[in-house]
Amino acid sequence: MTTNTRTVAVILAGGIGVRVGLGIPKQLIKIAGKAIVEHTLEVLEASSHIDEILIVMNAGSLRELDELKDPQRFPKLTRIIPGGDTRNDSTQAALAVLGDDPRTKVLFHDAVRPFVDDRILRDCVDALDDYEAVDTAIPSADTIIQVDSASHITRIPDRSQLRRGQTPQAFRLGTIRHAYELANQDRSFHATDDCGVVFTYLPDVPIYVVDGTPENMKVTEPIDVHIADKLFQLQSESLSASPESPDLTGKTIVVFGGSYGIGASIVELARAAGADVHEFSRSSTGTDVRFRGRVKKALKSVYEKTGKIDAVIMSAGVLRVGPLATTKVRDIETSIETNFLAPVIVSRAAHRYLRETHGQVLLFTSSSYTRGRANYGVYSASKAAVVNLTQALAEEWADDEVRINCINPQRTKTPMREAAFGDEPAGTLLDADIVASVSLRVLASAITGQIVTVRVEQPEPEG
């Protein structure tokens, strides 16, 4: 077994994103508040199996990555270089700057595969102790057919022996360099990936395959952007399962709507976690979140007293049930103003303070945001708007390092819900303290632009 060899991860970000159709290189599309390439870089930076990182970027968009050149945040990132016209050209651009040690382990990974996990990285690096070339792949769930120019099936391979290729593809530096040297002597050379170069020009070199994961998807088509966004949301749900309570000692937190329900639970738990909590509501302080002046006054008073604000939570809301056609216009306006306009007002007013602390806004939506519910459609629509607001502001505020997230609690036992729906079966509602506990873990995390779902735990069936 070879030891003490350097391991370099090369992020291939040379694509221009024609298929994704959003007018910018796909690796720069923002999901969950960050460009896809940034998410990918964070995974590789966090891996103990990677010593150094190199990005090969579309030459026309090279300057878009200048903000990633941060030694404090990404100490493993040593350089960002322009790529070529093809993937193979970009690979060779990286090979040209990777030094002379042929034993160096090199992992080539697509910038638009942000869900690669540390197990895959470890398996690729470990496999290079015994092999010179390694691929990542998953079994094919679909039958693969081969067709001719007339679109007639000519062959149906055995699916059990087929795999769908992913990245990373990993190599000994000397091996992949030699393969490209031979390929460049072939005028008919064409390959869509780096393992294909080794397979074609070094046929005696076995290529080992490690198991990928379905989540390690490549963002290529427009629908992939939506799937990736949902995967980030599912990742953030792990916060719901964590039993750990964060330490909020020294944090200054402002809670609007903290006099009852989830807001009151947040105030209590945050104080128990060491935070300096300032609560505002109509009933306790006369603060109506629908009015910009009152919100600004509340935030200013906290800032003047403490000198900083680390987080602002907006948990106030109203829920009125009834047919839209017979609901009073003023009740409709109040619902929209409280459930959507107020989060806008609070977020806007909080930004100036959170920019100083690189803090976070935490908003609340409802499980009804995914589908409008009869008899409270205005409420559902407003909560859907809060989700869109969260995702949009995560992008707007990324440069200021201000985070914004949204809690999506399933039905929760609160005075507001009880007033709207009356008594409901025991065990079907979340306890407000559970939602509050997840909310505090989100505050203590580094995520942004996430819709964090909190669900009722269903009991395991007996027998």
TrEMBL record:
<protein>
    <recommendedName>
        <fullName>2-C-methyl-D-erythritol 4-phosphate cytidylyltransferase</fullName>
        <ecNumber>2.7.7.60</ecNumber>
    </recommendedName>
</protein>
<feature type="site" description="Positions MEP for the nucleophilic attack">
    <location>
        <position position="159"/>
    </location>
</feature>
<dbReference type="InterPro" id="IPR020904">
    <property type="entry name" value="Sc_DH/Rdtase_CS"/>
</dbReference>
<comment type="pathway">
    <text>Isoprenoid biosynthesis; isopentenyl diphosphate biosynthesis via DXP pathway; isopentenyl diphosphate from 1-deoxy-D-xylulose 5-phosphate: step 2/6.</text>
</comment>
<comment type="similarity">
    <text>Belongs to the IspD/TarI cytidylyltransferase family. IspD subfamily.</text>
</comment>
<dbReference type="InterPro" id="IPR050088">
    <property type="entry name" value="IspD/TarI_cytidylyltransf_bact"/>
</dbReference>
<dbReference type="Pfam" id="PF01128">
    <property type="entry name" value="IspD"/>
</dbReference>
<feature type="site" description="Transition state stabilizer">
    <location>
        <position position="19"/>
    </location>
</feature>
<dbReference type="InterPro" id="IPR001228">
    <property type="entry name" value="IspD"/>
</dbReference>
<keyword id="KW-0808">Transferase</keyword>
<comment type="similarity">
    <text>Belongs to the short-chain dehydrogenases/reductases (SDR) family.</text>
</comment>
<dbReference type="Pfam" id="PF00106">
    <property type="entry name" value="adh_short"/>
</dbReference>
<keyword id="KW-0414">Isoprene biosynthesis</keyword>
<dbReference type="InterPro" id="IPR029044">
    <property type="entry name" value="Nucleotide-diphossugar_trans"/>
</dbReference>
<dbReference type="InterPro" id="IPR034683">
    <property type="entry name" value="IspD/TarI"/>
</dbReference>
<dbReference type="InterPro" id="IPR002347">
    <property type="entry name" value="SDR_fam"/>
</dbReference>
<comment type="function">
    <text>Catalyzes the formation of 4-diphosphocytidyl-2-C-methyl-D-erythritol from CTP and 2-C-methyl-D-erythritol 4-phosphate (MEP).</text>
</comment>
<keyword id="KW-0548">Nucleotidyltransferase</keyword>
<dbReference type="GO" id="GO:0050518">
    <property type="term" value="F:2-C-methyl-D-erythritol 4-phosphate cytidylyltransferase activity"/>
</dbReference>
<feature type="site" description="Positions MEP for the nucleophilic attack">
    <location>
        <position position="218"/>
    </location>
</feature>
<dbReference type="InterPro" id="IPR036291">
    <property type="entry name" value="NAD(P)-bd_dom_sf"/>
</dbReference>
<feature type="site" description="Transition state stabilizer">
    <location>
        <position position="26"/>
    </location>
</feature>
<dbReference type="InterPro" id="IPR012115">
    <property type="entry name" value="CDP-ribitol_syn"/>
</dbReference>
